[in-house]
Structure formats: C-alpha cells, structure tokens
Amino acid sequence: xxxxxxxxxxxxxxxxxxxxxxxxxxxxxxxxxxxxxxxxxxxxxxxxxxxxxxxxxxxxxxxxxxxxxxxxxxxxxxxxxxxxxxxxxxxxxxxxxxxxxxxxxxxxxxxxxxxxxxxxxxxxxxxxxxxxxxxxxxxxxxxxxxxxxxxxxxxxxxxxxxxxxxxxxxxxxxxxxxxxxxxxxxxxxxxxxxxxxxxxxxxxxxxxxxxxxxxxxxxxxxxxxxxxxxxxxxxxxxxxxxx
Length: 243
What we know:
Layout: H1 8-21, H2 31-39, H3 52-59, H4 67-76, E1 83-85, H5 90-100, E2 104-106, H6 111-123, E3 129-132, H7 138-143, E4 146-150, H8 155-160, E5 163-165, H9 171-206, H10 212-229, H11 237-241
Parallel strand pairs: 1-2, 3-4, 4-5
Helix pairs in contact: 4-9, 9-10
C-alpha cells in the first residue's frame, strides 16, 4: 500500500508490485512513469517523502486484476459503450483506459460534468448505467437510468443508487446483467405458458372435452408447477462463477 511519508523509491516499488499483481507487468507504462505523471516528480531525483494527497492519488492507480476481463465480459453481454470518467489527469487516465479496454475515457471531469454527460447520452436515446462509489459520483448516479454503488463506497452514493453491489469484484456487474436477463426470460416464459395453457383448458372445456373438475385440477396443478419452478435459482453455479 502506498502511504504518506513513504519515500519515492519505495512508492515506485509498491506500484510495480501492484501492477504485476493486477496482471499487467508488460503494460505500455511503468511504475516510474506513473509516479511522475501523478506527482510531477522524477523518482530518480526526488528524495522528499510523499504527502498524503500524493499517496492517495498513487494508491488509486492500482488496477484490479479482473478489470480488463470484466470490461470484455460487459461488452460480450451487450453493453455497447463502456466509458471511464475520472478526475485524474488525462495522460494517466488514458494509459489506464487503454490497459483495461474501455471504449472512451474522459479525464479531469467534475461531478457536474459526469451528470451532464449522462443527461446528454439519455437525450440521444441511450440507456445509461452509472457505477460509482464516491461522493463525487452521486449526481451522476441520480441521473442514470440505473445507478449502481459499491457497498464499501460513500454512504450518500449508496443512498442515491438504485442498486448496491455487496462485492468489490467487478464481475458482480456481469453477474447482475445475467441475473436481469435471466429474470426477464423467466417472466416472459411463465407468462406465455400460463396464457397458452389456460386458453387450452378453456377451449377444451367449451368443447366438452374436459369436465370442470378436471380443468380446475389441471389449472391448479399448473399454477403450483410454475410457482415451484420460479423458486429455483436464476443462474446455475457455473454461470454464477463464470468470468
């Protein structure tokens, strides 16, 4: 972890370890370059310990191991435009965005800029989902069609968001997408079956093929069967853990 008071060389070593752990040791940028971009200091010349603000910015650079795979999975599940918006400087934001594979990146943006971007996309007819965990994300979370907050984030973000994800694993977003699709598929399937089955019972009853008692028994049996089916898991274990 990068902390205040740490020497620049120790901070760079920490960044190198975190970048390697994140699965990108051969990225187009290295820890020393990230250090220079975020602090404006050359690690070869800097001796003064890190300030608290510098340490916080460097710590925020540590990419999650699953970031690139999660963005790829989001694309595969139907998301056409994955956008990264950050208050960090442009060069650093573009380097990170290139590494994780997002479609567009907006750097040095203010909270109101994020909200304005979402309003603009909605005006174009797009459905917008916003994922954020900070106080600065709250305006954008409220503007989105669906706001998703992380449970470890700011309280106001969790309060405003429509959904709070308990896991910090980015693949929770992919699982959430699959759950939504599976739920709608089950709802539509159950509706089609109920309407079709009941119409068949009515037709057979009117034609005199089925007596009322048999129709009632079949109707109640189908209702019980649909209810039991809808109590099962939407995703099996393999789908739920797929990455």
